[in-house]
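Memo to structure team: turn this sequence into structure tokens by end of day. - J.P.
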Amino acid sequence: ALFGLPTISRDEFEVSGRLRWGGFPAALEEVQVRLGANTLSANGTVGRPPHFDGTNFEFEGQGPDITAIAALARVELPADSYQMSGRLVREDDRIRFDALDARIGQASIAVNGSIGDPPTYEGTELEIAVEGPNLADFSGLFGHSLPATPFSITGGFTKASGAIQLEDVQARIGQSDVAVDGTLRTENAGVGTELTIVAGGPSATEIGPFIGRTDLPNDEWRIAGRATLLSRGVRLEGVSGSLGELRVAADGTVGTGEGLVGTDVELRIQEPDLRHLADLATVAEMPAEPLRAHGRVVVTEAGFEIHGVEAISRDIAVTAEGHIG
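Reply from structure team:
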């Protein structure tokens, strides 16, 4: 494990081609590297370490198992064949990828754009397209199990001062679709992150593993709206959601403190069968009655405040105002 890196392979290796070097950048001409069943070819120039200024080369590689190569980057990938090709260019303060294409098993990855230099990575501008038949194969990248379903992700990512801008990011997981635009703040614990999300699908069971719920019903679901991360909460603007026939709308702030302290939110709820709502909230059984409710809920350290709350179930209407300690 030279330089502290994992052992890639104990197979024999061969290197052929021409290296022209009279100082940096060095020229690679028809360089071919074979390590066991893995092959890599490169043509172009390689600049002086550690910044490699002047680097500009095309490459192609392939092999029967990517796991050993992934170990170099200390990531876990499925034991599957791979192919990759593209051009890598070192610019002033970034590395540019031209037509970087990779395939791992049946999953494909296409990348165009640049990655800025660490530690800030400013100047990063990437267009990414990823798709594959089985998201579960990449569970190792995320540290927990993912559903065995087809997936795709496309979109643009731009790194500016203290933030990552998401531009027209589209994801499809199984039959569920997610669209995201906005800004991810990379400093101050993410405070100031602002995202607009539109998502939905024919079955909520597909999204359960992503939110820690394996008991969601096989109902159509939708969610849309804007969310902004605050220092002690999340501000919701025009957020609406549905699950089956349940409808929920929210505007205001949901506190992230203990007991949701800091919450101040206007809610609207419509549910034709309270038993459905009870199952979702994992509370005691409720009657098979409809419910329409709206009002403002405030959570302070002293307890709950409710303002202008009205709940209607069939011919019964209840209004409420006050404080619950």
